[in-house]
Amino acid sequence: MCIGKNVSVMNYPTRRTFHVVMIVTLVSTVVSVRGAAEEDSPTVLNIGSRRELFVDRHLVGGLNGTSLKLHTPQLAAPVSPARPHGHYATVLKDTDKFQFYYRGDTKPGNHWKQGWEQYHEGEVTLYAESKDGITWTLPKLNIYDDHPTFPAGNVVLMDEFLVTHNFTPFIDTRPGVPAAERYKGLGGLAYQPHAEHLEVRLRRGPGGLKAYVSPDGIHWRRLRDEPVVPEEWGKYFDSQNYAFWSDSEQAYVCYFRRFIKGCRGIARTTSQDFLNWTPFVEMEANLPNEHLYTPCTQPYYRAPHIYIALPTRFMANRGAATDILMMSTRGGAKFDREFTQSFIRPGISSAGWANRANYSAIGIHATSPTEMSMFLTGGRRYTLRIDGFVSVNAPLATGEFITKVLSFEGSELEINYSTSAAGELRVELQDAVGKPLDGYSLDDCEPIYGDHISRVVTWNESGDVSALVGKPIRIRFEMSDADLYALKFN
Question: Dihedral of the CA atoms 243, 172, 216, 275 (nearest 10)?
């Protein structure tokens, strides 16, 4: 029989007429002997031992009675009274703490209509810390002289004109990065073609995105005086422009705000040294006449080759109300828009429908063994199950999901899944023509049910699939009242 190795102990039912089956189809190395033409051989996706989510159709070969389901984040319980606020926020997770960066102003209630230069001159970058991502403290850092507006003394960046409007840091994971530059960040705006702006530019110097580095995320220094991303690329940059090191692309990647065909959109550039950036590419992201106010694109921490984007959809004709969307990309010039509906709506509270009231912070992090958190404007926190953006979903009536042909590295198959009390899942391994492999047939597999972030699939009390390493396979899931969130070969 086939059972699973669990995080918690589960009992298994006897075989029923409805079931969930995961079938891995082995593409035989002797296909040519069977007469198939070489040009008909399927393309094989090598997923190695990477975790794969279903936020796109990268692995989807076929859906029969199943569908991709976007899950809705849940508003979490209020965080501590010292919760951080402010637009264009960033939440980082270091080894032993969470670090929250957000915008403040030396003049509470200040507005750009009272003077553009003085408005941006008063902006600062504030900082909070947490052990769990839920309860926050405002540490007194003693970097700048005490200011009456920020009595906690939690200012990490001040007197950096335009930069502190949207300063966005990240932890540099590039191998060999110097300790003094372990943290990096970008910030800045572009001047608009107004007389006031041009006069300020003559005195202050050009706009654009400027680069900063830090050993600890608290003490920052400018990497060079000139912007590393020129202001003409962004056409304002008045958004959150985020960079990170991509292991999959072996480059620094930056997603930034740009007007595209008259709408707020997203552009992308890459760099090998964080100083010199390739000519930008305008991303295929917007629906017709759709404004995407913040790129908010970041590698997912459990599958960093997949970038999750949580942009703000800006509705100028509805009081500047904003939704949060969910998109994804694996690099290149296009976002996957499998789901066009809202990911996080403004909500029942009238505050959620205020002008630009909903911006997602950079940062998706585990805040318990089973949940991950996302942070929004005003210190709000939303949660999902880990890997739980999207699932392959089946109703009680049996359905199936079949992957494209793939190869892997590892000796066992781990899945993140959930079923109802009545639902279940089973697994079978097949070759390309549907012949079950010895020891991995449907009859060798007992139904699997329950709810686990991490569970190893087994056949005849063994989960060993090492004999299939490097061979083309296809995975078929037959499902009943179940959700499959992710898979990974270990």
Answer: -60
Amino acid letter, residue 419? T
Q: 455 by DSSP, 3-state: which?
A: strand
- Please tell me whether residue 198 adopts helix, strand or coil conformation: helix
pLDDT in tens, 438-482: 887 878 888 899 999 999 999 899 999 999 899 889 898 999 999
CA dihedral 366, 369, 371, 373 (to 10 degrees): -20
Range of the domain at 482: 4-71+391-489
Nearest to 425 by CA among 55, 10, 124, 104: 10
Q: Find where tokens 């993140």 sit.
A: 416
Measured in degrees and rounded to the nearest 5, phi and psi for residue 473 equal -135, 165
DSSP class of 39: G
Same domain assignment for residues 226 and 360: yes
C-alpha angle 301/306/311, rounded to 5°?
Answer: 90
Structurally, the chain folds into a number of domains equal to 2
Instruction: Report which of 26, 7, 19, 8 is spatially closest to residue 446, judged by C-alpha positions.
Output: 19
Residue 115 belongs to domain with CATH number: 2.115.10.20
Are 28 and 478 in contact by the 8 Å Cβ rule? The answer is no
Report pLDDT digits (tens) over 212-243: 999 999 999 999 999 999 999 988 899 999 99
